[in-house]
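Moderator note: this is an archived Q&A kept for reference. The question asked for a predicted structure of one protein chain; the sequence and the answer are reproduced below.
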Amino acid sequence: MFKSGFGAIIGRTNVGKSTLLNCLVREKVAITTNKPQTTRTAIRAIVNNENSQIIFIDTPGIHKPQNKLGETLNETAFQTLIEVDFILFLTEASSEKIGKGDSIILEKLKEAKKKVILVINKIDLIKKTDLLELIDNYKNAYPFEAVVPISATNGKGTKDLIKEIEKILPEGPAYYDKEEYTDQTMRQLVEETIREKVLKLLQDEVPHGIYVETEKMKKRETKEKEEIYDIESTIYCIRKSHKGIIIGKEGNMLKKIGTYARQDLEKMLGTKVNLQLWVKVKENWQDDESILKRFKLEQ
């Protein structure tokens, strides 16, 4: 009997959703940083087992929105709950109480009426007695199918999590080829890789005001008959002062962003990369519907 299904990973910002996704898939399909709102789209990743195929959907972290972008990210996350077979509600073991953000998510889970597994991440941050109290509090708040404590950074508990998911998966076919591990396009992976480097290298106020567009992505052969990708991408920011920070003194910051991104892209693509980056200002893009539609859930 073969089982398959789609599952959403939902939680507040910075609880480790993308780290968990990468750990389960054993490939880097989602960028990870210590900054909130790193994930902006519903990223799909595929885990193939002998008798099952699980398609996970990483969602933007739930937060208090400050603009239309924030509203769109929350909307994308909650809309995903309607489309899936099961839900992983990811929270972190940083306290023995249920916080306000998690309480809001619990209300959305009740509306969704789906099978939900509670996944408590970062279990090394809490005493065992406090963890047991936290589990009891959550069990009293919602009838979870299972509760699985994990550490997404080292993979502890993830095998148990897969077993619990397989218990609630419906019978079904393999929706993707067994060699596939994400449905993201190469262009999307390129843009996210560049954005990750900006998030990691720059201070807090700049990264949330940027997005990346790739205008050119073409493979060719060099004179030495080596394959190389020519990639041209633009980093958009909301202020002229931010543009100066991204470029840096004598262009040093932009060069650093480009170098780190190129190194990752060469590993990902398995070939040399010629990466050209530009920086442009696009004020108020976070409230521009024509741009925000790229972050909405595709039907």
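Archived answer notes: Residues 252-269 form the longest helix (18 residues).
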